[in-house]
Amino acid sequence: MEDLKKLIRNIPDFPKPGIQFYDITTLFQDSWGLKRCLDILEEQYKNKSIDKIAGIESRGFIVGAALADRLNCGFVLIRKKGKLPGETVSESYELEYGTDELEIHVDAIEENERVLILDDLLATGGTFEAATNLVKKVNGSIVGLGCVIELKGLNGRSKLGDYPFFSMISYDEA
Ligand code: AMP
After folding, report:
1. Which residues contact 25 (CB under 8 A, 6 or more apart)?
2. What range does the domain containing 155 cover?
3. Best of 62, 80, 119, 121 to mutate for ligand 1, by most ligand atoms within 8 A of CB?
4. CATH number where 105 lies
5. How many structural domains are present in the chain?
6. Ligand 1: which residue has its CA nearest to atom 13?
7. CA spacing 20 to 30 A to 17: which of 29, 45, 99, 174?
8. What string of pLDDT tens digits covers the 174 residues of the chain?
């Protein structure tokens, strides 16, 4: 994982003073890095009978849609408020740097479909918590939560209940 870690750029004081931003765009723009990241996720989830991947806006769309293609499953968008055109359900949550609201289409998931939720990074856990609540509201069965980067210092896992959680790169500091 050290090779992948080298591709992540740290930007201090973004988007607010005091926040260290872990920029995954530098990993995505590297052809080896993107493929390696997907290989690891595919290995982790290929035998989990996943029906749908729910990707969280916006970087969760990138890994989520690419992995859905590899796993031959559908892809569902979890978006910021006001972006999805159809009927939605929503969840408010607190971020490391503010508050926000996420939405999902009510018809995105069939009852009891097996859903994997993906994002780029776990910080305080509020985003994943809201995403799990959304998938529950539309009656999906959550089989796992996955991301590329985990900021262990923020203890986001404590918000994720008993859902199986996977991250491939972690940082002890926030
Ligand atoms: P949280 O809800 O605190 O776990 O925040 C996770 C979400 O916010 C993910 O969608 C990340 O893309 C973004 N995020 C939060 N903190 C950071 C950070 N320090 N660096 C990069 N992205 C972050």
Report:
1. 9
2. 48-171
3. 121
4. 3.40.50.2020
5. 1
6. 121
7. 29
8. 889 999 999 999 998 898 899 999 999 999 999 999 999 999 999 999 999 999 999 999 999 999 999 999 999 999 999 999 999 999 999 876 678 999 999 999 999 999 999 999 999 999 999 999 999 999 999 999 999 999 999 999 999 999 999 999 999 976
